[in-house]
Here is the input.
Amino acid sequence: MVEEVEPHLQELRRGTVVLACLQLLCTPGYGYGLLEDLQSAGFATEANTLYPLLRRLEKQGHLTSHWDTGESRPRKFYQTSKQGIYLAQAMHSEWQTLSEAIDSLGDDPLTNEEK
Here is the structure.
């Protein structure tokens, strides 16, 4: 049963990770630090998912980046662009609307199944 559910859960999480990245990167951050922040906030994200996402968001203009070579190990820092902030606001608004719509449908499916 878990194998049937997991692809749907991954699909649901995909958009939420985009929104979380855009929100977290309003303050500049680098990949590994962002990965830790996401995981500590409850977003189960892997590096092989995050780094392509960051590159895609940058290519689309939602993130900007710069290299920090001042420390022993150079790090690429990302920050949400103005276009990315607009996208994050739109996604957050849509998330709230969808959440309210789901809540308006009534009880949890498990509760209904038990009746």
Remarks:
- Helices lie at 2-24, 31-40, 47-59, 82-104, 109-114.
- The longest strand covers residues 63-68.
